[in-house]
Amino acid sequence: MLSTNERTRQLNGTCVDSVDMELFLHYSLIPSLFIILILSFLQRREHRRQRDDTSYLLTNHFEIIIPLDFLGTFNNRWSYGIAFGATANKIMFLFSEGYQPLQVPQWAQAFVLLIGGIEVGLSHLPFFACLSSEFQLVSSILGFSYSLTWFAVTILHITQCPHGQFLGRYETLVFYWPTLLCLFFLLGYFLHMFVKSLRVHLGWELQTEEKPFLELHQAEHVKQLLKRRPLQEEKKSWFQTRIYEWDPCFQFPSRMIGTTVLAFICLYLFIVIEFCMFLYVRNELDVFEGKLESYIASTNQTGSLTLIILQVKELMNVTKGVWVVTILPASLTCVSYLFHILACYRKHMKRLWAGNKHFLPLKFHNPSSSESVVAIARYSGWQIAYILWGYLIIHVVQSLGGVMFMYGLVLPVTHNRGLEMLQGLGIGILTISIVLGLMVLQVWIATSFFLQPKMDTADKQKPLALNNRKVFHNFNYFLFFYNVLLGLGACLSRLLVSCILGTWLIARIDRTIMQSGYERADMGFRAWIGMLYVDHYHTNPVLVSFCHLLITGHRERRLQQAIQYGHLSQPSGPRISTRSRTRWLLLQTLINNPKLVMLRKSKSGHGSQEFIQILLTCPES
Questions:
Q1: To bridge 166 with a disulfide, which of 21, 80, 276, 473 should be the other Cys (CB 3.0-4.6 Å)?
Q2: Among 90-94, 281-285, 370-374, whose mean pLDDT is lowest?
Q3: pLDDT digits (tens, 9 = 90+) for 611-621
Q4: For residue 603, what is the DSSP state?
């Protein structure tokens, strides 16, 4: 049988990979910085600080670009999500700690990974900057060119060496097809942006309106609050009541969409990498199994050592089969978690909008502002990491459960020991049933003999008032010794249930797995709560609607004043300059309050110094 390296060389033939993706990542920083500088120069500053002693060469140009508004971006959500998906391979490269540009000690590894994260973010920043730029004609050309470069280099890397040593044929394509799909989508979207902006530039279409301060779904949410509730609610379908109900008055921000898309792709890549590692371990186990078979054939013994070797071979075969079978349920569990987290985000946000904080632990009713701001930056990355580690832990636990199932039920039947298995299973079920029955019997006896009757027939249960106290005390005394033994089993069951639920919910960042009172030790849950509060304070539809009314009213008042001043500045009277009027009022104020002169910023010049001296000698009125 050929080894994996020999099989790979036969598949690839004379494979010469002239594209080093890690080296290309470093060189991509050059065009990335060039695109960022161009878009920053085109961006205009809305508020420029006034300085009298310095003249700016760039006037009001060169503004820091924002790649993505992590709070209030509700437009082009899927475009930003696909842009995040294009970074999946590089994120998995960092996750596997394969980024080693420098040889540093182990304690400095965190700084290297930080540099790697910044480099990956900087190399993919043009995707987001071109999507969010106001100058769509220029940004579409730059974004299309940059995306086309990455797409061409990735295609070249795949075509030169498409096969690998683990999956065999088209292994490289299996790893890179999600990135190619995302880049292809970005190419199409930038092309669409170019055509649309070109038509606007030529005057064939009207310019689209600026981003509204109040989104449409936020306004609809406020309208729903102001409407009177119907007396009879509409009947919902089974899907709406059990799975998900669509809400047109709510939209997920781009951060949540991008996190979900990137988590899906990273989970897929993680499963592929795990399967490759499984194939490698399986091949090594096959070699080890062959050596065991040759040893048995050479010794020709039938003693206890041979029996142990056969049991080891059986364990390896069972483990390999169970590991492959549990890939599907473990992956489906994590995929369902991603959808469920989105549903929980909407549910929690609506509760916070309504002023309901009872679903949160008491310690999180007033979180720290600084921790909440940091949480909005941590959440997306931590959510992806929790999903990946959660998948691995869930897969291991399900595999252990599968091995126990095989050794407990399946293998005894294949080894003609089905009756013994059924007998042991029956005894175990009977023992547990008796224990549970005695516990239920205690509750029934307490309900029937040790509680006083109901005070009203409409009561659901009897009042907590003791009856037959003497019998009750004897009942407690004789069951005291039995409950000590029963408590041992209850303690073990508590530990078992906690381990199962903890490992099953480890990927759920929206739910803590800590005991009540220790929730602050769960850093993932703290990041979730902080992120909810930041979104609640900055995207609450009622608050945004109130601010929208204030801004709109302020603009209308300024427009009315401008119209009023326009009528006053008709040729019927002398024209008064607004600047001259302001300076005259300033002079009057300074004459009436000479002490304010010392608080003003002084100008260089002989005339201004004499003017200050004159004002200081003026008596206060």
A1: 276
A2: 90-94
A3: 666 666 655 44
A4: P
